[in-house]
Amino acid sequence: MEKILRGMTNTMNAVRPPRITALRDLHDAQTGPFSILIGTILSARTKDEATTKAVKVLFAKYKNPKQLANAKVKDVEKIIKSIGFFRVKSKRIIKVAKIINLKYKNKVPDDLDTLVELPGVGRKTANCVLVYAFEKPAIPVDIHVHRISNRLGLVKTKNPEETEQELMKKIKKKYWIDINDTFVMYGQNICKPISPMCDVCKIKNNCKYYKTKFAS
Question: Which of 30, 87, 132, 133 is deepest in the core (most CB within 10 A)?
Answer without folding.
Answer: 132
